[in-house]
């Protein structure tokens, strides 16, 4: 099984609606909201993912799959509004030094799961290295499906 890394962000993160409202009010306010949110996430990463490569944090050099478990205190916010915050998380992973970038080469896929926990709202982030017995990259899945089709034909 591939190595998994996990960290938890307490509380809820700003959603798309909160970000749009901040942007409409003042563009600097939206930038401040993003910066403060990312700084808080970076602190969670540094506290919960003590390093294998550096003294501060795990550094992952191969492609990854990220799974987000969003626990909200209620059902008031839409799931797509909530999941917008993955942008903050992925940018924070880069700022913290866990990922070199948050592009297509580094993050091959992600998934969202949603739950309600009124007493302990949080975001649990699970990062799994892609490929070699773990999560397959899209190219690996396509190649595997092509081989199966050739065997059947």
Q: Number of folding domains?
A: 1
Helix content: 40-55%
Q: From the structure provided, what is the oligomeric state, counting identical versus distinct chains? A: single chain
Ranges with pLDDT <50 over ≥5 residues? none
Our measurement of the CA-to-CA distance between the termini, rounded to an integer number of angstroms, reads: 32 Å
Main sheet overview: 4 strands, mixed
Output the radius of gyration. Answer: 17 Å
Q: Overall mean pLDDT score?
A: 86
Strand content: 15-25%
CATH-defined fold name: 60s Ribosomal Protein L30, Chain: A
The CATH first-level class comes to Alpha Beta
The H-and-E topology, N to C, reads as EHHEHHEEH
**Tertiary shape:** globular
Fourth-tier CATH superfamily name: Holliday junction resolvase RusA
């Amino acid at each position: 099984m591939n190595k998994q890394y996990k960290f938890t962000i307490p509380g809820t993160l700003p959603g798309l609606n909160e970000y749009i409202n901040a942007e409409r009010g003042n563009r600097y306010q939206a930038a401040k909201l993003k910066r403060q949110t990312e700084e808080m996430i970076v602190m969670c990463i540094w506290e919960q993912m003590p390093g294998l490569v550096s003294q501060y944090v795990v550094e992952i050099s191969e492609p990854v799959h990220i799974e987000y478990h969003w626990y909200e205190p209620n059902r008031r916010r839409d799931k797509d509004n909530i999941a917008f915050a993955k942008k903050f998380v992925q940018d924070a992973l880069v700022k913290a030094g866990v990922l070199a970038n948050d592009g297509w080469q580094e993050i091959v896929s992600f998934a969202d799961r949603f739950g309600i926990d009124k007493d302990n709202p949080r975001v649990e982030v699970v990062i799994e290295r892609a490929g070699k017995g773990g999560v397959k990259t899209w190219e690996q899945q396509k190649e595997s499906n092509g081989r199966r089709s050739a065997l059947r034909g």
